[in-house]
Prior knowledge:
Strand order of the largest sheet: 3-2-1-4-5-6-14-15
Structural class: alpha/beta
Number of domains: 2
Helix content: 25-40%
CATH class of the largest domain: Alpha Beta
CATH architecture of the largest domain: 3-Layer(aba) Sandwich
Order of helices and strands: EHEHEHEHEHEHEHEHEHEHEEEHHHEEHH
Number of helices: 15
Shape: globular
CATH superfamily of the largest domain: NAD(P)-binding Rossmann-like Domain
Largest sheet: 8 strands, mixed
Amino acid sequence: MDIGVPAEIKIAERRVGLTPAAVGELVNRGHHVNVETAAGDGAGFSDVEYKEAGAAIVGTADDVFANSEMIVKVKEPLAPERARLESHHTLFTYLHLAADLPQTEDLLNSGAACIAYETVTDDAGRLPLLAPMSAIAGRMSIQAGAHALEATQGGAGLLLGGVPGVRPGKVVIIGGGVVGENAAEMAVGLGADVTVLDRSPAVLEALARRFAGRVRTVYSTKAELEASVYDADLVIGAVLVKGARAPHLVTRDMLGRMRPGSVIVDVAVDQGGCFETTRATTHTDPTYVVDGIVHYCVANMPGAVSHTSTQALSNATLPFTLALADKGTDAALKADHNLLNGLNVCAGQVTDRAVADTFDMEYVDPIAALARR
């Protein structure tokens, strides 16, 4: 199969879809990989390394798309990239369609088979291609929040871990999944006062066992959520509903009862965010203030640690990339129901029920959509 790796064009996105090592695995199986010139530079992987792994270095994104059957990316395709997609393409990347109607419509119009990393599952129902980036984003959320709490950044001038004789900052994490667990680990490491809210007793029990009393676990009701947020210095939004738009759990009205200079970090921004006042920001302009509360809502947080993130993501996606290349898209999807769960759009049809429900579009069974290719 001809596989293309374009340079990412989202603002301040430095990751790349495949490492040279992953390219080498594909080439060793007889596949041809086109890598756009300098695509890996931001992640610390040079064109020379890709050449040594067996890739062809091509000059432009147009060349990558024109000469490839499968496109492997990191972030959702922006409008210029979507314009290059055709019906014979397979797109394998993060999509987050439930928060992006224009992208959904463009992918439908392309006729391509579009597989979203974030909805591929494993046999336990987990999200193995989302997990590594969720872990990184969870850890980074505490770094980002601690920095935003500095007075020079518009925050309350608070050191998250405190010092002897001074109380530490209060961190509230909404959601105890991969993001929340990793955020809690970093916050505990800094010496913060940490509370995690979730609606799953099993998740809360697991967190309580893991942190052995260093984290307060609370079942998330409206009353508990409000009380926790009002008392927080830093709130981390870590809610995930697979494939669907994140619910707005913290409203604009609630901001007025938070302490001025408090910070919220919305890791769910890719799925629309779990704060009513969330709007996506970039690494070049990461924060804004609403009602005295600093918002950090960068939509590609792991892009700031691009070398680590690229390696972690490429390691996770490689088995599926190899399967798609070795068997062909249709056969690979039919052979693996977990990979099939990642198919969001195919042959002009929505094949993910959460996306269809979000936009009130017709849902088509993925196997039926594949038959139309």
